[in-house]
Every structure is written in structure tokens, then in C-alpha cells.
Amino acid sequence: MILTHNCIFLCFQPTMNHHEQQNITILKESILPGDSKTINMEIAKLHTMTKLKIPIIVERSKFHGPTVLFTAGLHGDEINGIEIVRQLIVQKINKPKTGTIICIPVINVFGFVNQTREFPDKRDLNRVFPGSKTGSLASRFAHHLLKEIIPHVDYVIDFHSGGASRFNAPQIRIVDENPELKALSAIFNSPFTFYSKNIPGTFRNSCSKLGVKMLLFEGGKSVDINHEITQEGVEGSKRVLHHLGMLNSRKKITIPQQKTIYIDKSTWIRAKYSGMLHGYAKIGNFVKKGQLLALISDPYGKIEHKVKAPNSGYIFNVNDAPIVFQGDAIYHISCPSEEVR
User: Fold this and answer.
1) What span, in angstroms and rounded, lies between the C-alpha atoms of 131 and 109?
2) Taken in order 165, 166, 167, 170, is the CA torsion positive or negative?
3) What is the spatial distance between Cα 233 and Cα 333, in angstroms, rounded to a whole number?
4) What mean pLDDT is predicted for residues 152-178?
5) CB distance 154 to 177 below 8 Å
6) What does the pLDDT read at residue 300?
7) Is the pTM of this model over 0.85?
8) Other CB atoms closer than 10 Å to residue 265's CB: what's the count?
9) Please, what's the largest Cα pairwise distance for the chain?
10) Which of 144, 166, 255, 330 is the most buried (most CB within 10 A)?
11) 10 Å Cβ neighbour count for 6?
12) Predicted pLDDT of residue 21
């Protein structure tokens, strides 16, 4: 089902901040209203005994308000998200007019060093939440993140990219049937909002269970920085902060002409043959059923297989790989809706 911009906009008002307090303590360090502080989280060393510090950048206003956490690099090779949070810091967007903004640009610093998705213990950090104090390395870090930081937080915007060579159109992912998250995603106003269930073991699932509202942003692909994707993430974050009354009045917001398109039904188009992939469909575009999306060829100029759209819909993920194998996902396309909510 595709929910277009004609959907009824649900009025969203920030919830009363239940974390309003004079003192915030993270890793035994206190941050008072008006303070700016960088706290280094050290969970473990490398096998070379080298310390790896994960900076937690905290900016507090003197005036009460919500606490928003911006996170990226949960997967160490998803650099686009890291650049978005870096831009929030460089442009001083993270200095709130009210409330508190916490930025963790690189959660999985181990993976960032190696440009890999996983932790050194080969585990996906985003599948081990809520973690354990005495578990694996990834599990211990998940535990500390939930114990030390999330109790202070009202809202999280977590930035991700497509895995491998798959390029995601800018999109917010939320669970269905949550009016508050739907309204918040409309305020962020990414080109697409994709309904997806919370997966057990994920950061998003744990935050949801703890009553913390999360928008998960997907955009671009791993081991890559894309300026357009970065801008979407930064501008969407500014719109959310502005709505919460937290954005510095000197910072301006932009409102896209087209409102976010809601998608709750989609399908993957997979390669029926192995070969060289020649893609024609542009990310984010609407295509019609039967439209030519790509060709899969051999390297010798004898064979070309056509890839056509199985239905009309929006292309919101494309495989940028030059070579694909039979069964590889090459396009993610929304399916037509029978009703609009």
C-alpha cells in the first residue's frame, strides 16, 4: 500500500518531557543546564591494547525541553549517517534553544576503523540489543548504550545506509499504527516513509520498549558519502528540532514542496540471471508496470536479458553493483495501494 501526501495529517505535539532535570549523569559525569561536554565511552581495547573512545557529545540549553539523541555508525561502514551527524555538530545545529541534544556520530567505532559492518567479534550490533553486561563485546556495548544514555532521552533519530552496493532513497522507517511516529515522520518529511516492523534485537526495538520515540533514517549506500543524502538528513533533523522548539532561531528550515510518500507494501525485484547489470531506473522515480528497468548481459555481447517492472510503483532502493548473480536483489519497488489511509 502506498500512502500519498493526500493522507490526513495527524496533529503532532511534543510530549511533556519526563526527563527534565537539573542534572544529567552519563558514565559518572554530570552535565548541568547550559553545559557543553564530550564524554568518552571506553568499553574495550583493541587486541593491540590500543584504546578506542566513543565520543558522546552533549549540548544542554539553560531552558527545559526534550532530549533528542542523534546516532550514526551503528554499522561501521555506513558513513553517510556519520557525515549527517558530523554536519549537525559542525553547523552548530546541535546547540539547542531548549532542552538537550546528544550526538554519537560513530557508535561502532571498531567497524568504522575497519570500514566493516560488524563488531570485531563478528556480531551485528543492531541484532544484539538490549545486550548484556557480561556478554559478547557487541552485547556489552548495546547494554551500556541503553543503560547510560537512553534513560535520559525522549527522541532518537538514528541514521543508516543501504548495505553492500544497495543504494537507498532517503526514507524514514517507522512501525505502522503509531500516530505519533507517523506525524513526526511527516515533520521530518523525507521523500519516503516506509512502514517496517521492529526487528527483535535492534536498537529501534529496544528504544520502543523503553518508551523512546525513534525515527530510523535510511539513505545512500555503505562506504560512501552522498551530498544529497546528507542534506536530506540534516534538513529533516532541523525540521524536527524546530517543531520541538529546540532549533536555534538563527537556523533556517526548508520545507519541501512535496510531502513524504508513505509506503507499507513493497517487493524486491531479483535477478533471474547472472551477468553484468545495466540499470536504467532512477532512484526515487515512479515507474509503470512493464517499464524497462535494466538489462543483464553477458560480457561477450551475445546475451541481454530485460528486467521489467512487475507493477507500477516507486523505486526506493537500487543495486549499484556492476555484476549480479541469479537471485540478487536489484530493485525495491512499492506496490500499488487499494486504499489510502
Assistant:
1) 17
2) negative
3) 22
4) 95
5) no
6) 97
7) yes
8) 14
9) 72
10) 330
11) 7
12) 58
Total residue length of the chain: 341
Cα separations (Å) of 88 from 104, 107, 208, 217, 296?
A: 11, 16, 24, 15, 41
Q: Which residues pair with 59 in a beta bridge?
A: 36, 101
pLDDT band at 235 (very low <50, low <70, confident <90, very high): very high
Burial of residue 161 (CB within 10 Å: 0-12, 13-18, 19+) is buried
> C-alpha cell of 111?
567497524
Residue with cell 527522541: 155
Which parts of the chain fold into alpha helices (H)?
Answer: 79-90, 109-114, 137-148, 179-188, 203-209, 227-243
Position 5 confidence tier, pLDDT thresholds 50, 70, 90: very low
Q: What b/e readout covers 25-61, taking b as 16+ CB neighbours within 10 angstroms?
A: ebeeeebebeeeeebebebeeeeeeeebebebbbbbb
C-beta atoms surrounding 183 within 10 Å: 15
| 3-state DSSP percent of the chain in helix, strand and coil, to 5 | 20, 30, 50
- HEC string for 123-143: CCHHHCCCCCCCCCHHHHHHH
The DSSP annotation for 71-113 comes to EE-SSTT-HHHHHHHHHHHHTTTTS-SSSEEEEES-S-HHHHH
Residue with cell 551477468: 275
Smallest CA-to-CA distance from 241 within 38, 109, 68 is with 68
Under DSSP, is residue 215 helix (H, G, I), strand (E, B) or coil? strand
How far apart are alpha carbons 63 and 43 in whole angstroms? 32
**What cell numbers appear for 319 in the block?**
543495486
